[in-house]
Write a structure and sequence with these properties.
Chains A, B, C, D: Pfam families: Ldh_1_C, Ldh_1_N. Chains A, B, C, D: Residues 3-144 form the Lactate/malate dehydrogenase N-terminal domain. Chains A, B, C, D: It comes from Lactiplantibacillus mudanjiangensis. The structure is a homotetramer of 319-residue chains. Chain A has helices spanning 11-22, 36-49, 94-111, 124-135, 147-162, 206-214, 216-224, 229-243, 284-303, 305-309; strands spanning 3-7, 28-32, 58-61, 72-75, 116-119, 142-144, 169-170, 173-174, 182-183, 189-190, 193-194, 248-256, 261-270, 273-277. By secondary structure, chain A is α/β, with parallel strands linked by helices. In chain A, the strands form 4 sheets. The first copy, chain A, has a 6-stranded parallel sheet, sandwiched between helices. In chain A, helix 1 crosses helix 8 (229-243), helix 3 packs parallel to helix 4 (124-135) and helix 5 (147-162) crosses helix 6 (206-214). The longest helix of chain A has 20 residues, at 284-303. Chain B binds chain C through residues 53-54, 163-165, 167-168, 170-172, 187, 189, 191-193, 197, 241, 246-249, 266, 268, 278, 280-281, and chain C through 53-54, 163-165, 167-168, 170-172, 187, 189, 191-193, 197, 241, 246-249, 266, 268, 278, 280-281.
Chain lengths: 319, 319, 319, 319
């Protein structure tokens, strides 16, 4: 049985829930939110849909005890209104979301949860790191959607230039799910051709494409006030790779031994969560950007003293 | 190719769009909204998801010309804020939504659209009727989700009592997608047993169950501020029955020759939209309720003079 | 994680496997067949498809130890060539398939399997009974597809007369998955109307319709040499109801306390397998046919002495 | 509406049909086979499944007139028994399948079919070429599954070595869907790393891997007597790219201006069929192999005089 839980049923959490239900992916689904009326409303809306769906999902709300045998836990809480629209700064959420994680993590730990936790909260890398430490779950078991979404946006942006399916574009966005991220163009191929070979012939401005991908979330946010469909699709796809032990290559926010932080990088996703991280031969420039982005995450993470002064669970080696 | 269009990308329209994209149902999808930034944001959010989906849907926005060869058109505009929460009165929306339909219908007509239009706007029955008249589309081609959703809620409510799958509950909610609707209990079976045979043994309060189903939308609305998942699921399911010419039995808001109004009743949905309506042997009490509910729709519809005084397209016989 | 196993990868078993893989239903799948080359070939063919599917399923072969934590086990072995085409007699398979079950059951028992077993082997009712006894699994845990397929055929046959979706036809075929089965017409509705009310107006010959449904398998068999798609679809749907604990109403071959045999009848399918059987108010004629069909199963079952003289596991009450 | 037709309902054609029906991809499906009883049996078996599926597909048989407005036509006829098992030689089928195409093509032409035709018959490249000429359909409209399947097998074989998802392996098998095919290792990446960089560290024998991929079909064939699931999955995926105008990069048997023959190579698949072919910078060795494989196809194709001496439709430029 595939048992899922979602903590936080705002736009992202609710859309994840709908995806799991309408595609018949989840057999059981636990929705948890401090706003009980909201959790109940989402439960009802999803249950109202069940008579019209071929599959069935048992849906329960607000019971942390259910996490004991939950396989996949999505952490999606967060105050969208805390976002600093002007600056495009996902860090503006950290103070607020950190408090949420401080409230959630002990309950997750106490529940006996021992599945895989996937974080979509922003700032994604730091929150994922914080949640992993606070719960004492292994670094394999906890990861963030990170640049999995940014990479999808890069694929879309490049695909538009070449008028093809985004799936024809391979390659990765690395680093922070935020401003310091970068597209490692040395890894990007268009229909099997290195994009660096196409710059001249197609008059490509890679910096402009990178910027468009990086700001893709803001483009959505400015029009609808939040983002939901793409991030939910990404989160669900990662969870399916865990259930199937697919060992699928995906850029996610995973713990880096090199940088001692969670950061967006290609990883292999399987039944244990992050089975391994993949080291590609980046260019010197890309390597510097990667280091810089990791530093940005670490610096901001350290600025939150309380995040570090509370007793830490012993760090565990990546499985 | 399955070509869809959605006019109005609020919560309902956007969720329909997401369902069509994430399940690979639509090959092409046109999103239309007077709020261009919103339409563009939904387009972007859905396109961002495409690299993570196995299927692909071409998504365009705000071009009525695309309706000329569109197969299915969802009408989902509406101002959720106009709802009168206190009274639970879907009619409160009519003034507002009528204006929307007045703006939309001529454009739909001018586009040359000749597919099937499915309305989810409230008050559903009256708006569907108005839209059908204003566009000159046939009564077969235009129908509303009507009591398809209310019936799903009835199935859920009854299924909870009997601890079974909502799909085990057959039968129909008739009438207005609103307060005057009623569950025709004579049509309802639980696992193949007429529910009327189970009233005593299970101490059922059918009136209470009916009320719970009828107010299901408000229960959702009060917690999340709108409803989206169940109504979108219903709308999509109806559209699939049209594409496949499934001739699937569904209670929808269809034109009634008897009452000369659109009203919720079982109908056969196929490639032409409403292929026929199904006449069941209701009890005298149910028949009276049906008449009453139809009267309620007609009365309110007539109250809107401008809806009637504008030149009407010649009425066409049900195909 | 959804873990499935299939014993017997002939046409039915292989089609079940393909359905589970191509729809992303199974996370892990064990194929078992005495013909190792066949099991290996099906594994390879399914694995070759994986690069083209969005989902992933881990596929292993011929290891009974894997059954220890398997959730759903399909029993699909059987020698299609043993069928007596001339008589349309599914019992002709019993001698052969009984030997197969005699070989399989101890291995299943020894594996520690404790999930739900769904039998598609013919004669379905007797083999299901035999397998349940021989493995010592509970009567809830073991059931057969039985008349779930025959009911689907009845729905199709009736739907063709009324030119509508087979899903518009409710009601059940009862009894043996074989010649003594019957359609309980008192349970059948067409678009919500009792079919018995439509006999005159539509000049229906219910006996002819029943015969057409009963012989549906032979119609397929005579053209392609076996049946596969419908039976696989039925088997997979039942398994999904178990995983989701859907408590879905389905006619299956379930143990009847009344008749002390497995026999096709409506039941509620949930996480324990058969959660309960549903007793409908059949007509006197239908009740007699049901008794007769159960007697047919029992009589033939008893004819196989060795099936009864071997030590039996203690019978367990239906959960 | 998505309208499909399949000519030839042997194992491949029937499995394609089942995939289209069980996943709800096709709205209408035409099955054509000279063995009417077989076509009828497959139709019945698929129709028997419909009451258990959420979607519906209208299924008809043996009417070439239906091709006039068919969107996708699969050509899957072929005599599996003509295969020369000992030699692993797909060409052994040509004499037989050519006759089939000679019989089919005029009927397809006469039907007014103007959609996209996808050939799975072997020898795939030559038969595809023959069918394109004989029908007068454009070279864009007609293509073969070709090395789309061989590439999937290569991905599987390499993925097993690296214990990861086959979808993590990018790159292409080029050339004949037959013995002269080759894996263009310069195009292959494992989790984003060029496989040529991993040969030493992982002690890879690329020739052995290539051979395993090339003979993947025979491995399946030797165990089950035919191949079905992977080829059907590939064929359906290509058709979905056409419906959605996905412009998806896929290695298929497409017409090559360079070689003046159909041959396996990466192409962009969209609404017109083959929208363009993709030219990658192969190594000198790979280029030689590609030329050689194309020559093999041409040589064998020319050997069939009657294939060339019949009046040809005027060749059309690739759209």
């Amino acid at each position: 049985m595939r048992k899922y839980a979602i903590i936080g049923v705002g736009h992202v959490g609710a859309t994840i829930a709908y995806t799991l239900v309408c595609k018949g992916i989840a057999d059981e689904l636990i929705l948890i939110d401090t706003n009980t009326a909201k959790a109940r409303a989402e439960q009802l809306d999803l249950q109202d849909a069940q008579a019209r769906l071929d599959s069935r999902t048992i849906i329960k709300i607000n019971d942390y005890h259910e996490l004991a045998d939950t396989d996949i836990l999505f952490i999606t809480s967060g105050n969208i209104h805390a976002l600093d629209h002007a600056s495009g700064n996902r860090w503006a959420e950290f103070d607020y979301t950190k408090e949420i994680v401080q409230a959630i993590a002990p309950k997750v730990k106490a529940s006996g949860f021992n599945g895989v936790a996937i974080d979509t909260m922003n700032p994604c890398d730091a929150i994922t790191h914080y949640f992993q430490r606070a719960t004492g779950l292994s670094r394999a078991q906890v990861f963030g959607t990170g640049t999995f979404l940014d990479t999808a946006r890069m694929q879309k942006v490049v695909a538009e230039v070449f008028d093809c399916d985004p799936k024809n574009i391979s390659g990765y966005v690395y680093g922070e799910h935020g401003e310091s991220q970068f597209t490692a163009w040395s890894t990007v191929q268009v229909n099997g051709v290195p994009i660096t070979d196409l710059v001249d012939s197609h008059h490509l401005d890679l910096d402009a494409l990178e910027a468009e991908a990086r700001h893709g979330g803001w483009a959505v946010h400015s029009g609808k006030g939040y983002t939901s469909f793409a991030i939910a699709t990404c989160a669900v796809k990662l969870s399916e790779a865990v259930f199937a032990n697919a060992r699928l290559a995906c850029p996610v926010s995973a713990y880096s031994e090199t940088f001692d932080t969670y950061v967006g990088q290609p990883a292999i996703i399987g039944k244990n969560g992050v089975e391994s991280v993949t080291t590609l031969a980046l260019t010197a420039d890309e390597t510097a950007k990667f280091q810089n982005s990791a530093n940005t995450i670490i610096e901001k993470f350290h600025a939150f003293d309380d995040a570090l002064t509370q007793p830490q669970a012993p760090l565990q080696k990546l499985a």
